[in-house]
Specification:
The chain is of the alpha+beta class and 154 residues long. Helix content is 30%, strand content 19%.
Length: 154
């Protein structure tokens, strides 16, 4: 059984916690642990309320994911969000490209519960240390790989 099944109040407590964090900070980062079949991923919840797309990153451990998502989210709150296909070299971070998610509901579970049809999302795809992207066969990066959850913009 899962934690929510064993403790029915846990789901309500978790949602209350998330809503408090969103109210206090503008957004919250939710992480999903990887397993033998799937790499970890993390995403924001709350940017939708600010008129911005939610963000997701795959194949990165939790501390790196939180740092990256919070950094980009903070920028998006004060500036226009990046467009799909846009590449950015982060200060003290990787080269990234934004990819629009085709089905945010498939990966951003809590964000979908909160916002449903309003939900838009961008994936922050990161290049490896040699500047190769996950769509390059020579890519070497990301814990368990880095699935790309949408189609690249031309």
């Amino acid at each position: 059984m899962c934690r929510h099944c064993d403790h029915p109040d846990a789901r309500e407590d978790h949602e209350r916690f998330l809503r408090e964090q969103i109210k206090d900070n503008g957004w919250v980062v939710v992480g999903i642990d990887g397993d033998r079949l799937y790499p970890p991923w993390a995403y924001t919840v709350g940017l939708t309320e600010l008129g911005r797309p939610e963000l997701v990153v795959t194949g990165m451990d939790a501390p790196q994911s939180v740092l990256l998502l919070n950094s980009v989210a903070a920028h998006f709150v004060h500036a226009e969000p990046s467009r799909p296909g846009e590449q950015v070299r982060l200060r003290d971070g990787p080269l990234i490209e934004f990819v629009e998610l085709e089905q945010p509901s498939a990966h951003l579970f809590k964000a979908w519960e909160f916002y449903e049809h309003e939900l838009r999302a961008l994936q922050i795809v990161h290049a490896d240390e040699r500047g190769r992207w996950p769509w390059n066969p020579a890519f070497r990066g990301g814990r368990g790989g880095q699935p790309v959850l949408g189609m690249r913009a031309d």
